[in-house]
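Here's a chain:
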Amino acid sequence: MRHRGRYLATGLSAGFVKEMTAGRGFIALAALIFAKWRPWQALFATFLFGLLEAIANLYPNLDLGVVVVPSMFMNALPYILTVVILAGFVGRAIPPRAGGEPYVKER
C-alpha cells in the first residue's frame, strides 16, 4: 500500500507537482455520493467517470461535422458531467454515520 500516489506522480504527470490531482478528488467524492456509499456501485461509478476522462483524452478536438468541439470543453467534460449527474440523478444520499470521525482502535 505504499505505492498509492505513484500513478499520478509518474504515469500521469511524469513528476510530483503541486495540485497534480487536478480535481480528481472531487470526482472520487462524487462517485461515492453517486453510488450512495456502496462499494460495488462506487466501483462502477468510478468506471463511468474514468470512461468520461478517457473519451476526453482520446478525442481532444471532437469533429462533429458541423461544429468542432474544442479541447478545453473536452477536458472539462468529466467535471461537467459529474455535476450534471450529481444534480440530476442522485436522490437523497445519506452518508455513513461515522463519516468524518477519526478511527480509534479499541484495546
Q: What stands out?
A: The CA atoms of residues 57 and 75 lie 7 Å apart.
